């Protein structure tokens, strides 16, 4: 699966790691005060990742004494307590008030409860140093992904994937990448009127134009009047690494990916 | 002495000509060089007799000037043009008088809205009305203001409502005779909607019609308990007017809370309806409800289009309506009689109509906590952006969202003043329940934008112009059988109104979220539209 020079679009990207967002398979924590729909959990996750991970981390355990992912809170026990804290903050502490509606705050709590309910099967997190070797070697992940400026731009940049996703999600994306491809990660194949085929990452598509990043990382623009066919591919070109990598290698790879926190300044 | 009299007559004549009388508004179609109302004429057809730009020469259209708004809000206004002067609204509420030939600004009047204003979907304004030498604008904090068209100075200012409770004015007012008619938006905030008329000279209220019928009012029994107090029934766009019947026609917005009807048992009149009101008194002549007990946010906030056509062999005064709920309706506009209703896109919430024109609901198609996939989706088959009817082609043109669905999710909803009162959400999704792309990464199976040409006499689709992305752009047709529109992709284009063939396009670089219009100055036709934060005027080379 070495990257081979050749005509644009002549190969399928080897590894496109696409984070899957949402926990529709998770149930409601026993004893929780409210029942939440999977949609609430999904929305709550989005809100959590946008606003809470800077301090609490994707696993919810970055603040000492608090482990949101395991239902361990300092000052709250009921869902209403949590909603109140999400909205009002905790005066005198680093926990600020959030500008959330009651619905949004409830969705965040739904996600916290779902995190805790799903935490019973811990994801194996291996050695990050060995994981990097898998990432850059056997896994050939740099064929499609980039980390801190090294690698390919065809797939999502993973420089801060450890800040945006939980270990369990990252593991699932490695082992079962076909659940969902985010729209911004779609690929496209353009066939021109003279028969040339060009594939790449879809950047823009309108009535007149298709823009993409081809496999040689060239920005390409096609006028549709010169195009015979445009096929947008919504399935994930990334193969599953189940069976390709040993369990320990997967754990190490996950360990490396969760260690990638990016270089963006964190704000309290 | 004779010279003095002649001069006086000339000056007086010019001044009189500058007055936009009600008679001029009635006969706006006879002066196509101007654009005197939101839709161009009272019919809501947005059709112009100007024909200098033709299918043969439209390819030569060139931008003449661009007005750049000092605002990043959506630019949804359709301007007025009166004798060479363009009047439009820079969002949210700045009236601008522009030289329509050069794009240069004569004056600007700024209304600073209260920070208490609550808007679901942008701090927008859709335009102005004029009578005499006075311009009228509704504001997002619920004021109706009158401004002198020559000086830009305030004439009067009245506050209709409490903006902190979600009441806002976003529509271009409708002037009929000596009255200015408006109604508030705010259907996502639990308002109780209304239409109201003010004396154009004094700003005094003349009549009021509650679009959510209360106890003791006709239709008041269609609301359970006290749900009418927060029932919605908003007004987004300008009504139309039939002078022979002296009736104004208005589309009424959704019931609230939008996607949870448990607290409001009944049909919830007059939400998701068209009402025909006497222009002098505001009394209800008739109504028709497109979506009884709406739970899909199916605002009937479309421009009512009036057309006189032979219906089944005899001339009739018709009302044509492509509704957000996915059906294209033909009605008798004098009586409100339902004549036909046909889906113009995929529809899964209803399956036809009973003998009285009531839609037959499909069991199980209703919002649920886990979500129900329903076509058309949350933004509707079409929406507030205007359609057009050409009396030449006798076709109705509607900007549409085709093959478009949402997951309708129902949630408990308590009313808190000034807070969102949606009762759930409509989530963009494809048939598999997966998230769909936002702008310009879309695939056809996730839905697409289109201009549809519909024969109103048969409901048949004559042609379809497809776009990759959806559209919030209105449609203009002209006597040369051209059609102008745009969309979210950031293009403004011209189609052959008879075939749908694309004849010209220009990349304006921002979403077109307004209706195009046309005017002429010294014999030169312009076509104009807003896109992004700018307003563009096009014409043929000299």
Describe the structure.
- The complex is a heterodimer of chains A (268) and B (542).
- Chain A is α+β, with helices and mostly antiparallel strands.
- Chain A has helices at residues 38-51, 53-56, 79-88, 102-118, 128-136, 161-164, 167-175, 247-258; strands at residues 146-147, 150-151, 187-192, 197-205, 209-214, 219-223, 227-233.
- In chain A, the strands form two sheets. Chain A has a five-stranded antiparallel beta sheet, with no helix packed on it. A two-stranded antiparallel sheet of chain A has the order 1-2.
- The longest helix of chain A is centred in the middle third of the chain and has 17 residues, at 102-118.
- Chain A is globular and about 65 Å long.
- Mean pLDDT of chain A is 81; it is low at 1-16 and 18-32.
- Chain B is mainly beta and 542 residues long.
- Chain B has helices spanning 2-18, 22-26; strands spanning 47-48, 62-68, 80-82, 85-90, 94-99, 105-110, 129-131, 134-138, 143-148, 154-159, 174-176, 179-182, 194-199, 205-210, 240-242, 247-251, 273-278, 284-289, 305-311, 314-322, 327-332, 338-343, 350-353, 359-361, 372-374, 388-390, 395-402, 406-410, 424-428, 448-454, 461-466, 476-478, 482-486, 491-496, 502-507, 517-521, 524-531, 534-539.
- The chains are: A alpha+beta (268), B mainly beta (542).
- The interface between A and B is medium-sized, with 18 and 27 residues.
CATH class of chain B: Mainly Beta
Helix content percent band of chain B: under 10%
The CATH topology name of chain B reads Methanol Dehydrogenase, Chain A
Rg of chain B, Cα atoms, Å: 22 Å
- By DSSP, the count of extended strands of chain B is 38
Tell me the name of the CATH homologous superfamily of chain B: Quinoprotein alcohol dehydrogenase-like superfamily
Named at the architecture level, the CATH assignment of the domain at 38-118 in chain A is Orthogonal Bundle
CATH level 1 name of the domain at 38-118 in chain A? Mainly Alpha
Number of helices of chain B: 2
**Gyration radius of chain A, to the nearest Å?**
21 Å
Strand order of the largest sheet of chain A: 6-5-4-3-7
SSE run of chain A: HHHHHEEHHEEEEEH
Helix content of chain A: 25-40%
């Amino acid at each position: 699966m070495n990257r081979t020079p050749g005509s644009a679009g002549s190969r399928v990207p080897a590894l496109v790691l696409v984070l899957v967002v949402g926990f529709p398979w998770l149930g409601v924590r026993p004893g929780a005060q409210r029942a939440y729909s999977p949609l609430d959990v999904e929305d709550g996750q989005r809100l959590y990742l946008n606003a809470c991970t800077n301090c609490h981390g994707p696993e919810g355990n970055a603040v000492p004494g608090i482990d949101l992912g395991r239902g361990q809170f300092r000052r709250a026990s009921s869902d209403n307590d949590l909603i109140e804290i999400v909205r009002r903050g905790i005066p005198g502490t680093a926990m600020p008030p959030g500008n959330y509606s009651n619905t949004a705050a409830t969705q965040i709590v739904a996600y916290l409860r779902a995190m805790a309910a799903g935490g019973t099967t811990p994801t194996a997190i291996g050695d990050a140093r060995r994981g990097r070797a898998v990432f850059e070697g056997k896994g050939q992940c740099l064929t499609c992904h980039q980390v801190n400026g090294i690698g390919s731009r065809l797939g999502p940049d993973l420089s801060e994937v450890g800040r945006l996703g939980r270990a369990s999600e990252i593991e699932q994306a490695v082992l079962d990448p076909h659940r969902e491809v985010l729209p911004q990660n779609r690929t496209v194949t353009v066939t021109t009127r003279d028969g040339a085929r060009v594939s790449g990452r879809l950047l823009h598509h309108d009535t007149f134009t298709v823009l993409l990043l081809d496999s040689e990382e060239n920005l390409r623009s096609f006028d549709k009047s010169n195009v015979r066919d445009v096929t947008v591919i919504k399935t994930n070109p990334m193969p599953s690494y189940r069976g390709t990598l040993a369990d320990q290698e997967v754990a190490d790879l996950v360990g490396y990916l969760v260690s990638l926190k990016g270089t963006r300044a964190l704000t309290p | 002495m004779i010279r003095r009299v002649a001069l006086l007559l000339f000056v007086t004549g010019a001044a009189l000509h500058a007055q936009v009388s009600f008679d001029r508004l009635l006969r706006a179609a006879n002066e196509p060089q101007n654009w005197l109302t939101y839709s161009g004429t009272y019919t809501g057809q947005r059709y112009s007799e100007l024909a200098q730009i033709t299918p043969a020469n439209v390819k030569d259209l060139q931008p003449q000037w661009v007005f750049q708004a000092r605002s990043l809000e959506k630019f949804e206004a359709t301007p007025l043009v009166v004798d060479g002067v363009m009047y439009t609204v820079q969002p949210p509420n700045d009236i601008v008088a522009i030289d329509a030939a050069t794009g240069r600004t004569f004056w600007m009047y700024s209304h600073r809205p209260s920070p208490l204003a609550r808007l679901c979907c942008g701090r927008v304004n859709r335009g102005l009305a004029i009578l005499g030498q006075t311009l009228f604008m509704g504001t997002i904090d619920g004021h109706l203001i009158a401004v002198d068209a020559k000086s830009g100075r305030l004439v009067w200012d009245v506050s209709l409502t409490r903006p902190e409770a979600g009441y806002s004015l976003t529509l271009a007012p409708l002037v009929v005779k000596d009255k200015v008619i408006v109604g508030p938006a705010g259907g996502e905030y639990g308002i109780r909607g209304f239409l109201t008329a003010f004396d154009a000279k004094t700003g005094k209220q003349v009549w009021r019609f509650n679009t959510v019928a209360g106890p003791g009012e006709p239709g008041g029994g269609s609301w359970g308990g006290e749900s009418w107090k927060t029932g919605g029934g908003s007004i987004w766009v300008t009504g139309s007017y039939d002078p022979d019947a002296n009736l104004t026609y208005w589309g009424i917005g959704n019931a609230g809370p939008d996607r949870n009807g448990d607290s409001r048992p009944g049909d919830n009149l007059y939400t998701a309806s068209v009402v025909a009101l006497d222009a002098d008194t505001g009394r209800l002549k008739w109504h028709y409800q497109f979506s009884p007990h709406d739970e899909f946010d199916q605002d009937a906030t479309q421009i009512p289009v009036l057309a006189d056509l032979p219906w089944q062999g005899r001339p009739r005064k018709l009302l044509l309506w492509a509704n957000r709920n996915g059906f294209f309706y033909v009605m008798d506009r004098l009586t409100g009689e339902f004549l036909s209703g046909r889906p113009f896109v995929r529809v899964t919430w209803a399956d036809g109509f009973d003998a009285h024109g009531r839609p037959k609901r499909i069991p199980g198609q209703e919002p649920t906590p886990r979500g129900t996939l329903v076509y058309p989706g949350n933004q509707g088959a079409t929406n507030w952006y205007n359609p057009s009817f050409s009396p030449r082609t006798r076709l109705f043109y509607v900007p549409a969202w085709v093959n478009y669905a949402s997951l309708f999710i129902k949630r408990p909803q308590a009313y808190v003043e000034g807070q969102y009162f949606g009762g759930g959400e409509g989530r963009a999704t494809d048939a598999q329940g997966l998230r769909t792309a936002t702008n310009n990464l879309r695939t056809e199976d996730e839905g697409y934008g289109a201009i549809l040409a519909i024969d109103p006499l048969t409901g048949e689709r004559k042609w379809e112009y497809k776009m990759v992305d959806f559209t919030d752009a209105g449609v203009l047709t002209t006597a040369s059988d051209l059609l102008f529109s745009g969309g979210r992709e950031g293009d403004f284009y011209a189609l052959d109104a008879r075939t749908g063939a694309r004849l010209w396009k220009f990349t304006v670089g921002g979403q077109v979220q307004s209706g195009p219009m046309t005017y002429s100055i010294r014999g030169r036709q312009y076509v104009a539209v807003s896109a992004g934060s700018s307003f563009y005027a096009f014409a043929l080379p000299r």
